[in-house]
Amino acid sequence: MPTWLTQWTAPPAPRPACPPLTHHPPPALCLPPPDPLPVPVPPPNPFPVPPPLPLLLPVHRVRLLSLHVQRFRNLTEVSLVPGAHATVAVGQNGQGKTNLLEAIYLLATLKPLRASRLSELVQFGAQGARVSGRFLLKGAEREIAVELAEGTRQAFVDGKKAASLEDYFGGVSVVAFTPDDLEVVKGAPEARRLFLDRAVFNRFPAYLRETRSYARALKSRNRLLKERAPEEVREAFDETLARAGARLWVRRRALVDEVAPRAQRAFASIGRTPLPPGYAYTPVGLPKGLDFAVAEEAALVEVLAAALRTRAPRDTERGFTSVGPHADDLTLTLGERSARAYASQGQQRALVLGWKIAEIENLELATGVKPLLLLDDVSSELDPERNAYLMEYVAASGAQVFLTTTDAGLVARAAGPDTLWLTVRGGAVTD
Ligand SMILES: Nc1ncnc2c1ncn2[C@@H]1O[C@H](COP(=O)(O)OP(=O)(O)O)[C@@H](O)[C@H]1O
Ligand SMILES: [Mg+2]
Q1: How far is the CA of 188 from the centre of ligand 1 (A)?
Q2: Which of 19, 283, 319, 345 lies 20 to 30 Å from 233, alpha-carbon distance?
Q3: DSSP assignment of 378-391, as one string?
Q4: CA-CA distance, 264 to 86, in Å (whole number)?
Q5: What are the residue ranges in the chain where pLDDT is below 70?
Q6: pLDDT tens digits, 313-351
Q7: How far is the CA of 220 from the centre of ligand 2 (A)?
Q8: Of residues 108, 303, 285, 275, the one with CA closest to residue 198
Q9: What is the C-alpha to C-alpha distance for residues 114 and 123, in angstroms, rounded to an integer?
Q10: What is the pTM of this model?
């Protein structure tokens, strides 16, 4: 780790020194050698990180060996062999750099990185898009493909239709970091839920199925509210919704419990403020006296079911469900005050950067998987020191990383001799 990452005191101001002793006499006006600096004593870490979870398995590094993209946004046809460690896509704005990362993200998660509809990803005028790649996953090579057509997707693993999404996910883990993430503190609660859920989904693959069950149950309840269905019918649905919702609460709580202390520690290096950061998840509508931090899942089912019952008249008026994980927020604070209201833009971005670094670290420690990293043009949004921290982190992490930038100089620290440098222009990718 470079010393500036661990240094606790400001470096001394440079001062002119006498040249090293030679057989020539030193010039008369030079300063004597500086006094030895006191050895910096690190203050006690205010954010002790939980000890690493015992890892019984070796760490598996997700590795993309080759990528083929067809008719995906403005990328008509792209084939490449990524760098073993870093691949950097350089180009002006609007050329297709983010599209390239979006294709990789889709391949790894089946979900769009920024599109709200899958159909947006298909090239204008084309019938369908295809992204495929060879991954090295837990020592085995896997050919994975995703085809998009008419708003639906189909995944293939080694040429066979993937039976379920969880089969498909056996080991592909990816952490994306985009300028939208950097805006998340200022954004709407929905953006923060997505930000949180992406981390939960990586950590607990079953979360994908669980969020779908919850979304289905929520949709049914909302429909019943709008139709003003009889109370008994709606209450029968409330039970299912409460069970599904409590599960999402527990997953999000578990993830925040793991990531928050690490994020606080990372922030201590980049926040440039003594104010402590806070990352907290507390559902809305919990009864007073319930300690969410320790509540059993069964108790949370009861609590949510009761909240749904209490709010039923109001929800019926409005035609939607006002309590549950879909209405919650991730609370980001600095010095115990709302970061959204009081933190500077740089501090807000440092809060997000701290979280992202913690998320990557935590995945590796908790699951034994070193994820693929996709960094979309974040360097231009961070100030030089924070960008340097991130680039050093990426280089030291050993993960395979894909970076996009308009200015190659900004990401140079993350690159090594085996980096693949790509130029993206008008949807064409060349090396
Ligand atoms: N479905 C699509 N078909 C064709 N081109 C698209 C599609 N969606 C977006 N684009 C084009 O992609 C370009 C933006 O690409 P993007 O990857 O965001 O650029 P950047 O290099 O700035 O990251 C724009 O020119 C946009 O018109
Ligand atoms: Mg872009």
Answers
A1: 25
A2: 283
A3: -GGGS-HHHHHHHH
A4: 27
A5: 1-57, 163-171
A6: 999 999 999 999 999 999 999 999 999 999 999 999 999
A7: 37
A8: 108
A9: 15
A10: 0.85
User: In angstroms, what is the C-alpha Rg of the chain?
Assistant: 25
Of residues 351, 344, 356, the one with CA closest to residue 394: 356
Ligand 1 close to Cβ of residue 74 (< 6 A): yes
Closest-CA residue, ligand 1 atom 17, reads 96
Spatial contact of 86 and 420, defined as CB atoms under 8 Å apart: yes
| Whole-number pLDDT of residue 57 | 60
Amino acid of residue 362: N
d(CA 38, CA 58): 41
Q: Are 149 and 128 in contact (CB under 8 A)?
A: yes
Sequence-ordered list of residues with C-beta below 8 angstroms from that of 121, at least 6 positions apart, any chain: 72, 73, 102, 106, 112, 115, 129, 148
- The separation between the first and the last C-alpha atoms of the chain, rounded to the nearest angstrom, is 31
Q: Residue 278: in which H helix or E strand, if any?
A: strand 277-281
Among 236, 128, 184, residue whose Cα is nearest residue 348: 184
For ligand 1, say whether the CB of 97 is within 6 Å of any of its atoms: yes
